[in-house]
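Whiteboard transcription, Tuesday session. T.W. wrote the C-alpha cells on the left side:
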C-alpha cells in the first residue's frame, strides 16, 4: 500500500487535509445545559450571522460557526451577554494505531498499544513501565507530556491563528523548531522539541550532582586546633590576631552546615516524590478514560489537561 509523508496510507493522508474556510469559529462558556441547541441557534440568529451551533459534550460550552470571516467579541443570548473565545480544535488521535490525523474508524494500520507501543490492545497490556509509541518516552501516548502531541497542538494553534491548511502550518512550525535548535547549538533530532518541552525534559533531578553539588567538607583537625587556640587566647593580645582571622571563616560552616543543606534537600526530595505520584495518577486516569467516548469522560480528560501544568508549577 502506497504511503504518504507521515507514514499513513496516501488516501488517508490526503483526506485529512481540510481547506481553510472564511468562517469564524468561537466558543461561549456558561450556557445552561437545559437550553436546546436549536433554541440557542434561533436566539443567536436574531442578532448575529450564525451558521451553526454545537454544544461540546455535556458541558456549558457551545461552539458557534459564524458567517463572517472572524468571530465577534461578544454575542447576546436571551438577556445575557457572552464573551466569544477563540476555538482551537484538538488534534485527532487514532485510538487504534495511536497516530495523529485520523480516527480509528478509517484506520488501516496495525493496532498499537497506547501504553507500551506493542502490537496488542491496551486492555491486554501487562507492561509495568509505560513507553509512548510516538516519542518513546516513559508515558502513555495520550499523556499531555508527549512531545509529539505537543507538536500537533502547536501546529493546530498556528493553523487556526493564521487561517492556513495543516501542511502549511506544519512546515512553518518545523522550520521554527529547526531554527531554534540551530540557535541553541544542538543537533536537530528527528522529532524536534519546543522550548516548553525542553524545559520539562531538563528539569533538574534531586540526585543530579551537577545541579546539586556536594556540600563542603567538614573543618579539618588543624582548623579545629586553630579555632580552639583562638578561642582560648585573650582578645587584647596582638599576636593572636592572625589566628582569629584564619579561624573566623572556618567556624561559620560549622554553625550553618547541619541545618541549611540537608533540610532543603529533604524538602526538594519530598516535592519530587509527591509530584511523581500525582503525575502517575493523572496518567493512569487518562489511560482509563481515553478509550471512552462519553461526554463525561471527555470533560474529565480536559480537566486533567488543566491539572498537570498546575502540578508542574507547584513542583
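and on the right, the sequence the group agreed on:
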Amino acid at each position: 500500500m502506497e504511503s504518504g509523508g507521515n507514514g499513513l496510507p496516501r488516501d488517508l493522508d490526503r483526506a485529512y487535509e481540510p481547506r481553510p474556510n472564511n468562517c469564524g469559529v468561537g466558543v461561549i462558556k456558561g450556557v445552561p445545559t437545559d437550553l436546546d441547541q436549536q433554541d440557542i441557534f434561533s436566539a443567536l440568529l436574531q442578532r448575529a450571522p450564525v451558521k451553526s451551533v454545537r454544544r461540546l459534550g455535556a458541558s456549558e460550552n457551545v461552539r458557534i460557526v459564524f458567517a463572517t470571516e472572524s468571530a465577534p467579541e461578544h454575542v447576546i443570548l436571551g438577556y445575557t451577554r457572552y464573551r466569544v473565545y477563540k476555538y482551537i480544535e484538538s488534534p485527532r488521535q487514532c485510538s487504534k494505531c495511536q497516530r495523529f490525523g485520523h480516527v480509528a474508524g478509517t484506520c488501516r494500520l496495525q493496532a498499537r498499544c497506547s501504553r507500551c507501543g506493542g502490537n496488542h490492545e491496551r486492555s491486554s497490556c501487562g507492561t509495568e513501565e509505560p513507553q509512548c509509541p510516538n516519542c518513546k518516552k516513559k508515558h502513555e501516548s495520550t499523556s499531555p507530556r508527549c512531545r509529539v502531541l505537543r507538536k500537533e497542538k502547536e501546529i493546530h494553534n498556528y493553523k487556526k491563528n493564521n487561517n492556513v491548511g495543516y501542511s502549511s502550518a506544519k512546515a512553518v512550525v518545523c522550520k521554527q523548531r529547526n531554527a531554534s535548535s540551530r540557535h541553541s547549538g544542538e543537533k536537530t533530532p528527528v522529532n524536534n522539541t519546543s522550548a516548553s518541552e525542553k524545559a520539562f525534559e531538563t528539569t533538574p533531578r534531586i540526585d543530579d550532582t551537577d545541579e546539586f553539588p556536594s556540600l563542603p567538607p567538614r573543618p579539618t583537625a588543624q582548623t579545629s586546633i586553630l579555632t580552639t587556640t583562638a578561642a582560648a587566647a585573650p582578645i587584647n593580645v596582638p599576636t593572636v590576631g592572625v589566628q582569629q582571622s584564619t579561624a573566623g571563616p572556618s567556624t561559620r560552616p560549622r554553625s550553618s552546615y547541619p541545618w541549611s543543606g540537608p533540610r532543603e534537600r529533604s524538602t526538594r526530595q519530598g516535592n519530587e516524590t509527591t509530584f511523581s505520584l500525582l503525575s502517575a495518577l493523572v496518567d493512569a486516569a487518562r489511560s482509563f478514560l481515553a478509550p471512552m467516548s462519553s461526554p463525561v469522560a471527555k470533560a474529565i480528560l480536559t480537566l486533567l489537561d488543566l491539572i498537570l501544568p498546575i502540578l508542574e508549577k507547584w513542583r
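Someone added at the bottom: Helices lie at 10-15, 37-45, 147-162, 166-183, 195-201, 221-232, 241-289, 295-314.
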